[in-house]
Amino acid sequence: MPARARLLVLLAAFVCAACGLVYELELVALGGYLLGDSVTQTSVVLSVMVFAMGLGSLLAKHFTRRAAVSFALVECALAVVGGLSVLLLYACWAWLGRYQVALIALTCLIGVLIGAEIPLLMTLIQRIRREEAGRAAADLFAADYVGALIGGLAFPFLLLPALGQADGALLTGAVNAVAGAAVVLWLFRDEPSPRARLLLWTGCGTVLAVLAVAGACTGAIERAARHALYGTTPRQAVQSRYGEIVLTGQARVPAQAGQPLRLYLSGRLAACGSDEYRYHEALVHPALAGVGDSRVLLLGGGDGLALREVLRHRKVTEVLVVTLDPAVPALARTDPALSALGEHSFADPRVRVVTADPLAWLREDSATERFDAVLADLPAPERASRSEYHAVEFYGLAAARLATAGRLAVPAPAGPGLWTVEAGLRAAGLFTVPFPVPGSGPACDPAGSGDAATVLLAARDLRPEPALAADAPPPRSFTAPELSAAATRLATGRPQPLPPPSTLLEPR
């Protein structure tokens, strides 16, 4: 019997470790989805979590006399806090705007509770059968580490795709509560008094009921938060592996005045139907004014809007779209308003779509295809999580795909960040010319499609001249003389020397 009881305690350690790592990954993933800076979010969560676990281990020393009851209380608290953490953080992000403070507070509390588990479990193991401390610690930590492995694998491959962020955390909390109750109310049922046992049963049942009610209300909470965030009820909301995709505005085409279609990716405006053409015209048309321009590589662009501008060029015979999240082009194909805004560009037989990370595809694809134009319709560098698409290595790999006299176009932010991007392109051996995106109208954020306020045009052999091709309708937002004049004005502010470029090892 002692051997069986000991095995069950180790099983509880296994389950609790798996749940603890799921909570940790939930916090990291949600921070990356909502704030975009996955490097900072991961660093904050991991460092605060490890510190708090050490603090929790120290605090647990004061509760080892009643280790079973203390362990049950810790697991109930962890089930509530960890299970509700995603909904609480999402609500803070949508309504309060103090997400970082809430993230640190929840991470610290969860870490303290996780850190208290090991000392209490060690005490319970020794209570079953006293043995050498090193052997007992080895068994306990082995169960803990294997459980962490299972939890770490279950999160991205099972919980996240099957249940999503909120429901996955709630289910993990329920498992946590049941594991704690099983250890105390069955194996160590003699420690608590009958009154304490009744309270523990009641507490565990209450925790499970709270998690069940939260699970039933998840949809309503998400809808209310989205309404507060976007100012209206989203017409479409898709949770993909890479973030939340939201469409607002009219489904009718064309939309009524004052209600343009808006596309949000992880809470950020990615396209606004009344103004998006300004950015996409600036990204595409000058790049396709070179020689040839029959084959185009579009990195990103899953919404089909840059693709629409590419297909207006009659010389284009093939467009290869490499996009990370398959849910975005799927929505661009099926949503009537977004599909109409993109002029059903994905239905064009000239288009081929590859689902892959653009940087990984450039690095790993063994094909020797060359393109007359390479367009990086990717987020402008604002945070560390976006810097890989604006590193010297990325530009070098993209430039290697250019045919003779081919052109590369990339977005850049306004201000000093523009010159960091230009420094990266020049470090990759490219000649560059920057020009601003024409100003947007009152319905949308500046720069129309959200992030980019400038476009950099680059070529390998000589400085590309801002121009427009004759095989496409003229852009609505600028003319060739206006483009050239704007590029000249912007170049006068170029610092000498340029700032250091961003690299994968030293993102800037």
From TrEMBL:
Keywords: Cell membrane, Membrane, Polyamine biosynthesis, Spermidine biosynthesis, Transferase, Transmembrane, Transmembrane helix
Bilayer topology: Multi-pass membrane protein
Binding residues for spermidine: 280, 303
InterPro entries documented for this protein: MFS_trans_sf, PABS, PABS_CS, SAM-dependent_MTases_sf, Spermi_synthase
Pfam families: Spermine_synth
Gene3D superfamilies: MFS general substrate transporter like domains, Vaccinia Virus protein VP39
A GO BP annotation: spermidine biosynthetic process
Pathway named in the protein's UniProt entry: Amine and polyamine biosynthesis; spermidine biosynthesis; spermidine from putrescine: step 1/1
Span of domain PABS: 209-460
rRNA-binding recorded as keyword: no
Subcellular location: Cell membrane
Primary location: membrane
Region annotation Disordered: where it falls in the sequence: 488-508
EC numbers, comma separated: 2.5.1.16
Gene Ontology cellular-component terms listed: plasma membrane
GO molecular-function term, one example from the UniProt record: spermidine synthase activity
Active-site residues, Swiss-Prot/TrEMBL: 377 (proton acceptor)
Chain ranges passing through the membrane: 40-60, 72-96, 102-125, 137-163, 169-188, 200-221
Class of this enzyme: transferase
Its job: Catalyzes the irreversible transfer of a propylamine group from the amino donor S-adenosylmethioninamine (decarboxy-AdoMet) to putrescine (1,4-diaminobutane) to yield spermidine.
Subunit field text: Homodimer or homotetramer.
PANTHER family: THERMOSPERMINE SYNTHASE ACAULIS5
Family classification: Belongs to the spermidine/spermine synthase family.
Protein name: Polyamine aminopropyltransferase
